[in-house]
Amino acid sequence: MSSAVPARSLMSIGEVLTALRRDFPDVTISKIRFLESEGLVEPARTPSGYRKFGHQDVERLRYVLAAQRDQYLPLRVIKEHLESLDRGDDLRGSRPLRPSEDADGLFRLPAADGGDGSEVRMSRSQLLEAAGIEAAVLDQMEGFGLVAPRVGTTHYDGDALLIARTIAAMRTFGLEPRHLRAFRTGAERESGLVEQVVTPLLRQRDPEARARAEEVAREMGALVVRLHTALIRAALREVFER
After folding, report:
1. Which member of 45, 164, 203, 217 has the lowest number of beta carbons within 10 Å of its beta carbon?
2. Interacting residues of 207 by C-beta distance below 8 A, sequence separation 6+
3. What is the mean pLDDT of residues 84-111?
4. Taking each helix axis from N to C terminus, what angle separates 29-37 and 13-21, rounded to the nearest 10 degrees?
5. Beta partners for residue 53, in sequence order
6. Does 72 lie in the same domain as 14?
7. Which residue among 93, 127, 146 closes a domain?
8. Above 50 in pLDDT, residue 113?
9. What is this structure's pTM?
10. Spatial separation of the C-alpha atoms in residues 62 and 19, rounded to whole Å
């Protein structure tokens, strides 16, 4: 272990987990180990091999987790950002991300009002008020499989709110939930493709495999959205070029 950092200022991986979970409740020890294996953080090691994290390591982990949660950036992009910061580059002057793009122009998986949509919990009445819709409209959305409470609960999350708001906006153009079933079908097929890719990782006994699968699913999801968006854009362009 480097003698440049006083031992008393270093933290075990368990202590780092406790510190991070206040802001990132889904983080796990396996996730931290996975981020280390990807070179995003390099904790010191005791002679017996135990990880010891300094304040800078914890801040790097916060940066990574926030970038994944709030911007859905792939790890390779986050790593490039960290390397730029390590060189002393000022990233504040770089082109800000558009609401639907990441740094590579990949369309991010959106969450309602920023952050991870799964962190939002609202009742049916709260969803109706936040989305500005009537109960009968929500009944239609649920009937066609477009919106549903979280599995095993009666609460709705941020993704349900985003879907409800989007459908409400589309209704102003004369589209009703019954017209949008194809979106649900398409989403299930696309997510099925991602599932095929990550399932072999989830079957591994490696405790870090789940974290690796989550990262693959995040990047695959962004690519799916990018492809879908590009195909829609190309199809609409043909409408005006006929």
Report:
1. 203
2. 30, 33
3. 50
4. 110
5. 11
6. yes
7. 93
8. no
9. 0.61
10. 10
